[in-house]
Amino acid sequence: MVRSPIDPILTPDTHSLFARPMVNGVAMAHSDKTVFCLGSDGSQQEGNDAEAARIAVARNLDVKLLIDDNDVTIAGHPSEYLKGFDVAKTLQGHGLKVITVQGEDIDALWGAVSEIVTHKGPAAGTLMLASFSGKH
Fold first, then answer.
1. Assuming Cys at both sites, which of 42, 52, 53, 135 could form a disulfide with 20, CB separation 3.0 to 4.6 Å?
2. pTM of the entire structure?
3. CA 101 → CA 97, 115, 126, 127, distances in Å?
4. Could you report the per-residue pLDDT of 36-68, keeping only the tens digit for each?
5. Which domains does the chain have, with CATH numbers?
6. Sheet (strand 97-102) strand order
């Protein structure tokens, strides 16, 4: 088995109320590892995600988020019902390093992931992806 030089731990976003806090717990238990969480704009609206982001910053956990920001949640389109909500600005406000790219641009995506991985401490990539309705 070929292992990455950073030896990451991957954790899927379960869209549960405990996904992001769980990622922090894994990062605390394995401080020698980089922990990834795949999430979405909808999951970033949960209060636990905000608290988890602030804890990751306060403890400088090596947590990396890849967030699918496609303007689609279980409640509809945040741009319509939650005016002003911006995933990248919210994560920056919590203190994370954030890189936003068009998710369909593979070169930009690879560059963002590379920058996030090499950043010391918590970081996020928000991937602007076209939704099924054609909106961003």
1. 52
2. 0.76
3. 13, 12, 7, 5
4. 888 777 666 666 778 888 999 999 999 988 888
5. 9-128 (3.40.50.970)
6. 9-12, 35-40, 63-69, 123-128, 97-102
